[in-house]
Amino acid sequence: MKTPGSLRAIRRITRRLRKEGLMDSRVTALSRASEKLATQYELVQHQNRGLQEALKLAHKKGKRRKALGLFNPEESGGQPVFFSPAKVELARRRQMDKAQADEQRKQAIEDRRLQLSILREEKARASAEKKKQRVALRQALQEQRSREKTKRAAERETKRAQKLEAAAKLKAERAARKAERQAIREVKFEVAATSKPGWLKATVLELQGGKTYLPFDGSAGKYGGQFLSLSGLGGLQDRLLVFPKKSII
Q1: Which segments show compositional bias classed as Basic and acidic residues (predicted)?
Q2: CA atoms of 203 and 15, how far apart (whole Å)
Q3: CA 148 – CA 156 distance, rounded (Å)
Q4: Which residue stretches of the chain have pLDDT < 70?
Q5: Are the CB atoms for 229 and 239 separated by under 8 Å?
Q6: Alpha helices per DSSP H over the chain
Q7: Strand partners, 226
Q8: What phi-psi label fits residue 232: left (phi over 0), alpha (psi between -120 and 50 degrees) or beta?
Q9: Based on the number of CB atoms within 10 Å of its own CB, is 23 exposed (0-12), middle (13-18) or buried (19 or more)?
Q10: Cβ of 232: how many Cβ atoms within 10 Å?
């Protein structure tokens, strides 16, 4: 709700409050005080307007009238000089034109000053906008560099992890091959003739899975064993017979 500033507006608000049943002794006293203050304010405003008009009138009356510039003491020679109405009107028009030209010059100066002020404000706004754009661009570039830096760091970490994984895998494979070669080197065979021709007796170490290995001499059918194809066994035969340890004669 807009604050009432005149006596009429205050009375209108008072009537509305009375219709809505919101008036009590305190609101009534406040309304009367507001009406009194509004009345005094309007009287003061009226007096101020009267004083301002009186000052303007006094200023106009006290303003010194400018001479038309018709009288020249050197030309008159001390004798009375009479001017025709046409000459007086011409001098008055000349004076009015001069005053108008002065006013136009002052107005042009004021317009120029206003234009310069507008140009300065526009220049300041443009400079502020450019500065804002530079700040935004700088921030965007910093964010982009930060993202690229984070991405490069993640890629380096991924490559490093892959290298470590590959190195660990290679190391494990080398260790497995080394262990396999070591186990094969530890196998010791004792071959001796048995009572049955063509049979061999072998004493070997247990390698893995509870099985033992017997070298193959071309008569596999006599052993009842099973052929296996293994690789990386050094100087041993590529084809071996596998027996349970207890089945060796």
Answers
A1: 144-160
A2: 126
A3: 12
A4: 1-7, 58-84, 88, 182-249
A5: yes
A6: 7-19, 25-62, 73-76, 85-185
A7: 242
A8: left
A9: middle
A10: 9
DSSP type of residue 214: E
215, β-bridge pairs: 240
- Over the stretch 86-142, which tens digit does the pLDDT of each residue have? 776 777 788 788 888 888 898 889 888 888 888 888 888 889 889 989 999 999 999
Query: DSSP state, 210?
Result: T
Do 70 and 88 touch, CB atoms closer than 8 A? yes
Name the β-bridge partners of 67: none
How far is it, in rounded angstroms, from Cα 239 to Cα 196? 23
Q: CA nearest 30: which of 44, 10, 5?
A: 10
What is 81-142 written as a DSSP string?
----HHHHHHHHHHHHHHHHHHHHHHHHHHHHHHHHHHHHHHHHHHHHHHHHHHHHHHHHHH
Q: Rounded to whole angstroms, how far apart are CA atoms 140 and 156?
A: 24
Helix (H, G, I), strand (E, B) or coil at 208: strand
Cα–Cα dist 135/48, whole Å: 54
The encoded tokens of residue 130 equal 């450019």
Beta-carbon-side half-sphere exposure of residue 103 (alpha carbons within 13 Å): 6
Closest by CA position to 186, among listed 152, 233, 139 = 233
Written as one letter, the residue type at 52 is Q
The reply to whether the predicted model has a pTM over 0.70 is no
| Residue 168 buriedness (CB in 10 A; 0-12 / 13-18 / 19+) | exposed
